[in-house]
Amino acid sequence: MNEGGLHHHQSDILVIGGGLSGCWAALTAARAGARVLLLEKGYCGTSGVAAPAGPGHWWVPPLPGAREEAVKARLDKAQGLGEATWMHRIMARTWQTLPDIGRHYQYEPDDSGRIRLNALRGPEYLRALRTYCLAAGVQILDHSPVFGLLRDKAGRVAGAYGVHFQGALGPYRAQAGAVILATGGCAFQSRLLGAANNTGDGHLMAAQAGAQFSGMEFSSIFSIVPHNTTMSRAMIYSFARYLDNAGQEIAPDAEGQSFLGVARALAQGRVLCDLSAAPETVRAQLPLISPNVMLPFRRQGIDPFQERFPIDLVGEGTIRGVGGIRLKGENWQTGVPGLYATGDVASRESVTGPISGGGAVNAAWALSSGCLAAEAALAEGHVSTGELEPFTDNEACSNGQNGSDSREKTIRKQIQAVMLDAPTQLSRNAGNLRAARNALENCHDSLTYSAPGGSWRQRQQRRETQALLAVARWCTASALERTETLGMHRREDAITKASDVPAYHVISSGLEHVQSRREAVHA
Known about the structure:
The chain is built from 14 helices and 17 strands. By secondary structure, it is an alpha+beta fold. The chain has three domains: 2-215 and 318-390, FAD/NAD(P)-binding domain; 222-315, Alpha-Beta Complex (Flavocytochrome C3, Chain A, domain 1), CATH 3.90.700; 396-520, Fumarate reductase/succinate dehydrogenase flavoprotein-like, C-terminal domain (Methane Monooxygenase Hydroxylase, Chain G, domain 1). Helix 2 crosses helix 3, helix 5 crosses helix 14 and helix 11 (406-419) packs antiparallel against helix 13. Mean pLDDT is 91; it is low at 394-403.
């Protein structure tokens, strides 16, 4: 419906984000009989980090003791932050639901003729999910970024507003019984493959509605890419050796961390990667599992298993990191009535602890959290009526003039200089964290007083800049709060060992004034 140039949409469930988690959430709700609207910033089926990848899934059969052993192994790595109940839920739902994609996905046998249900080719996986959603009745609106959430008179989240850049052009309001955020993590616009749209938009929306964040200090993770490319698929690099500009091998440090040495060597010059130790089975299966990985090498005429090649490091932020919106209870609720969070936008500490979930656990989390959040939202069964209003007054549905993006571009570069500097992120100390905090606060002061208005595209870019900055400030405040080394968060100035400190979460919040505090696990 269009009234005075403003498009109106109504649904039972509104899903924001059309990646892996968003599609599974929308599909689950639609198959239960709900009217579902999915709003995607890019194109659902190609947007997000899973689309160009080769997602495996945490795939543990319900055999006697199998899942208990898998949970124990993960809890041992979680260092007090993991929860067995959540892990079992994720494994059980993944095992139950993932085979459903076979209705629209063409599996290929491996070299032994076996079908691996848990390992899918990302481009075809996401295309199949889009097809499945449409067949189930989900209404998908592509190129329709969301600018913020709407609330009813009771303060409950009841929709969202934004602009359509394709199809029915112009601003819109989407009213819904519940909203599921599936906007992904934030990579600070690094060269991470598939992450161009992952600018923290959902984090900003949630914060404006009053949500809090947990584990944002676990954001210091970087991946290897061939030099001047975006191909950041990490599996083959588990067999890699790295050599500095003088030809000396870069040895892992005492804790087995090699990327810090790589980062410092890159600051001095070129670093070469040697994949000659990769097993023949991996080389043979790679094109089947991750068909995109070999493309940059082919284009450059490089055989990566026979020749050494130069590499870069790209930041993955909260995508392969851990932190995100703090979930309260067991139903993916955010603490804000009517708002749910799934996938990488939510904190995954309960299943990963302070280390990355990699591809398998993260993919299983995305699938399962999407399904379970949709079921929880449907069970609540709320219907909002009456007038809705935005949580903020940032020009919800008006257009302005004379906007400029030069300041936003400068601020983005300053944010990247802080969050994508591998040496200081991989080895943090109070000095560099305070410097980062001060730089980000200066950005905040500059952005706060930037001129409003501009075209819809300019306003979208400003919104993304605000989100990037907000996520960077929460990450930095949380890193300052956790003074010991834990998982991927490494403090070179740590005085105490993590094992000497009772396990706790770092909770961060706030936009104008960022706050962080410690909360004991299970408090």
